[in-house]
Every structure is written in structure tokens, then in C-alpha cells.
From TrEMBL:
Family per similarity comment: Belongs to the ABC transporter superfamily.
PANTHER family named in the record: ALIPHATIC SULFONATES IMPORT ATP-BINDING PROTEIN SSUB (PTHR42788:SF17), TAURINE IMPORT ATP-BINDING PROTEIN-RELATED (PTHR42788)
EC number per UniProt: 3.6.3.-
UniProt-listed PROSITE patterns: ABC_TRANSPORTER_1 (PS00211), ABC_TRANSPORTER_2 (PS50893)
Official protein name in the record: Aliphatic sulfonates import ATP-binding protein SsuB
ABC transporter domain sequence ranges: 10-240
Length: 272
């Protein structure tokens, strides 16, 4: 792992979920508890596991993006509060969230002022869609819509890119293409990526570290120290994937059960 200072850190950050009823889950209250850091320029995948249904993994991303506030703990960017670096953070959702009444290039530059069209076109060029700039979102495939959403994040030149399962709805080949695109942009621009995914193979293929969250806490922190580009059929990659899967699929040990007590007979026979 690189020894660069952390871009973002969570020090015992906790946030009670106020949008939904508080729930108990294997003895843990419905709160996001996490402690760790992400080195600048690193890629990390968070694999959701055994979180309460009403406490979703994207709650962690909402904390980092500033959409929710922690009830305790700290969110840091270097040594300063993460809130001070909010403009350097962008969140990409599961769906593209493109406005159907705006053309592609207008979706990329949404909310920007001044002469932004050149930057929007450059961002579209980076994701391979410059020629579709003046089309409507309805004319794009699912993968192309996600590319536009990625361009909308890139135009802000983020230092921290938060990805909330943006590839989950794509077919297998398109998903791999998007993984390679995101990895290429990460290598080119040097931003930090935090990817939430349910796909273990995706996590070990793209990330520098895989974080497994269990009961709202870090259950596994696995460095992926493999050279890039990575061969998806390699034995080393398969071994790392198996290590994560073994942890994910492990069943909790049941407490020892007492010996069954034989019931008393319902009828007693007496020998005379």
C-alpha cells in the first residue's frame, strides 16, 4: 500500500439513522460505525455484508458526501474537517439520474455557471461520448448513461469520488468496460475512489483495499497488492476473491445446546 497521507479519514464516526426506525441487528443498533482512512490516490471497495435492511451501505457514502451528518466521531480530509473539502467530493449513484428534458452535454454541466461547455465536452471525451453530446438521454444505453453520470462527476475535478454501486444494473461485458474506464481515469487523474459493491470479484479486481462491513463495523480489511492491469483469470486474484467469499459466507457459530431432557412417562406400570 502507498504510504501517502490519508485523503479522508473516519475516526470512530457514528451516525444514528433518523430517516427510518431504529432497528436491532444481531445485538447492534442501527448506526454506521467505521474507523479507517483512505490514502490519497487509492481505490477502495466496500463490500456490504449483514447490515440491517433499513441501514443501507450508501449511508456511509452520504456521510462522506455531506448529505448526512455524524452524531459523533470525525470526518477528516487530511488534518482538516471533511466539510472544508466538500467541493472536492463527488457522489455517483446507482442510477444515472439524468434529466430527460436536457441534452447530454447539459446534464454534464448541470448547475455550473459561466463558460462550462468546453469542460463538459472534455469530460464527455474522457468517457468516450463526445459525439453524443447533443443527444437526448433517452437515446443512450444504460452503460452510456452511466458514462454521462461519470462525466458529470469528472467535470468538477474531484479528489474524492464516491461510487454507490453505479455498475450494478449493467450487463457483464459493459460492467467490465466501465470498471476499466474508471480505473483508467483514476490512474490518469490520481483521485481517491470509494466504491460500494455487492460483487466480490469486482472489488478485488479494481480496488487497492477491500473493506467488508459486518454489523455496521469493519469485519475485514484486505489489501490487494497486485500489479495493474490485473488479469481476471489469475490464481492470485482468485485466491483473494476466495478469501473474501469465505468470510462473507461464513456462518456464525451457534452456542452449544444443552442435552435434551427425556420426558417423564405418561403412564407408570407397577410390578406386584
Amino acid at each position: 500500500m502507498p504510504t501517502t497521507p490519508p485523503l479522508a479519514a473516519l475516526r470512530s464516526a457514528s451516525s444514528a439513522v433518523s430517516r427510518w426506525p431504529c432497528a436491532e441487528w444481531r445485538g447492534a443498533s442501527a448506526s454506521a460505525r467505521c474507523s479507517g482512512h483512505r490514502p490519497a490516490g487509492s481505490g477502495r471497495a466496500v463490500r456490504r455484508y449483514r447490515w440491517p435492511q433499513r441501514l443501507r451501505q450508501e449511508h456511509l457514502l452520504r456521510l462522506l458526501a455531506g448529505l448526512d451528518q455524524p452524531s459523533r466521531g470525525e470526518l477528516l480530509a487530511g488534518s482538516a474537517a471533511l466539510a472544508e473539502a466538500r467541493e472536492d467530493t463527488r457522489l455517483m449513484f446507482q442510477d444515472s439520474r439524468l434529466l430527460p428534458w436536457k441534452r447530454v452535454i447539459d446534464n454534464v454541466g448541470l448547475g455550473l455557471r459561466g463558460d462550462w461547455r468546453a469542460k463538459a465536452l472534455q469530460a464527455l471525451r474522457a468517457v468516450g461520448l463526445a459525439e453524443r453530446a447533443n443527444e437526448w438521454p433517452a437515446a443512450l444505453s444504460g452503460g452510456q448513461k452511466q458514462r454521462v453520470a461519470l462525466a458529470r462527476a469528472l467535470i468538477h475535478e474531484p479528489r474524492l469520488l464516491l461510487l454507490d454501486e453505479p455498475l450494478g444494473a449493467l450487463d457483464a461485458l459493459t460492467r467490465i468496460e466501465m470498471q476499466q474506464l474508471i480505473e483508467g481515469l483514476w490512474r490518469e487523474h490520481g483521485f481517491t475512489v470509494l466504491l460500494v459493491t455487492h460483487d466480490v470479484s469486482e472489488a478485488v479486481a479494481v480496488a487497492d483495499r477491500v473493506i467488508l462491513i459486518e454489523d455496521g463495523e469493519i469485519g475485514l480489511d484486505l489489501p490487494v497488492e497486485l500489479p495493474r492491469p490485473r488479469s481476471r483469470g489469475s490464481a492470485r486474484l482468485a485466491a483473494l476473491e476466495a478469501e473474501v467469499l469465505n468470510r462473507v459466507l461464513a456462518q456464525p457459530e451457534l452456542p452449544p445446546q444443552p442435552e435434551p431432557v427425556s420426558p417423564l412417562p405418561t403412564q407408570l406400570r407397577w410390578a406386584l
